[in-house]
């Protein structure tokens, strides 16, 4: 199906993917925003006592609170790493616009860091992305390229590649789906932090697959420390699902950074189970997160319930405030 594409400026009017003339670019972008980005990562590891109340005393269930990153999601980590690497390599310069495809969270991270560093940011995302995500991106000053919702993030990727091919010198295209900096951010950060926060006692790691960076990088770091740690990769049980940011690998464009053999097991999660758990997390644990986090916790609880002993760790991917218009929290 041909891509149905429109471009919306930060003000919501149609426009091109360029920085407005009344927003001057900073020349000290390497240092600008340092205070903000220092708070990316080092998120709390929370024990889910209410969700895991029926588990034996020898089994613990934990979740990494990635929704507490300054940009509200786990994607702050790879976005920062990709921007830093691009600037260090000279690929992201003052006269280029950062452009990438996103389902929302990585785009918000790009836009936040871009605003802090005076960088021009353009993002392609499906036209049916939640209104909250659209408004957040516009608030940070990003230019939006809206693509066919039926094509998902695959369609957004294709549109970005078309734009970059037309004017390669005008853009820095990190391509989060194929960029090793994505998983390396989690190898250096998320995986290391989990080992430190559990005193190396983690026995199982569970994460959903989207760009796959969180799973790939964290798993590599954990298994480097202890090859007996079990890594479980989760994905939606069908292509038609409501777990924003996750991919049904059999029907989606598979990210270049994904190596399925790294996982010890592959499991699926139903949308209904993800939503039920997302609501439980808010009402029983006081954790307002999105449905991908609910899917992770639902899957991690299933794993924990099968154990006689162990420490199971998963990821709370993003804040639930991005889904309020979706009626996620209404009965």
Number of domains: 2
The amount of helix comes to 25-40%
Largest sheet: 6 strands, mixed
State mean pLDDT (0 to 100 scale).
Answer: 89
Supply the helix-strand structural class.
Answer: alpha/beta
Do you know the CATH architecture of the largest domain?
A: 3-Layer(aba) Sandwich
Number of helices: 10
CATH topology assignment of the largest domain: Rossmann fold
Reading the helices and strands in chain order gives EHEEHEHEHEHEHHEHEEHHE
Query: Shape from CA axes?
Result: globular
- Oligomer class: single chain
Strand coverage percent? 15-25%
Give the C-alpha Rg: 19 Å
What ranges have pLDDT less than 50 throughout 5 or more consecutive residues? 1-30
Number of strands: 11
Spatial order of strands in the largest sheet:
2-3-11-8-9-10
- Spatial gap, N to C terminus: 35 Å
Task: Characterise the protein shown here.
With 331 residues, the chain is an alpha/beta fold. The protein folds into two domains: 6-20 and 31-35 and 75-172, Rossmann fold (3-Layer(aba) Sandwich); 41-70 and 190-326, 3-Layer(aba) Sandwich (Rossmann fold). The protein contains ten helices and eleven strands. The protein has helices spanning 34-37, 76-88, 105-117, 131-139, 152-166, 180-188, 190-197, 213-225, 271-285, 291-305, and strands at residues 6-8, 45-47, 59-65, 97-101, 121-126, 143-147, 171-172, 204-208, 230-236, 265-269, 310-316. The strands form two sheets. A six-stranded mixed β-sheet has the order 2-3-11-8-9-10. The protein has a five-stranded mixed β-sheet with strand order 1-6-5-4-7, sandwiched between helices. Helix 8 links the parallel strand 8 and strand 9 (230-236). Helix 2 (76-88) packs across helix 6 and helix 9 (271-285) packs across helix 10. The radius of gyration is 19 Å and the shape is globular. The model is unreliable at 1-30 (pLDDT under 50).
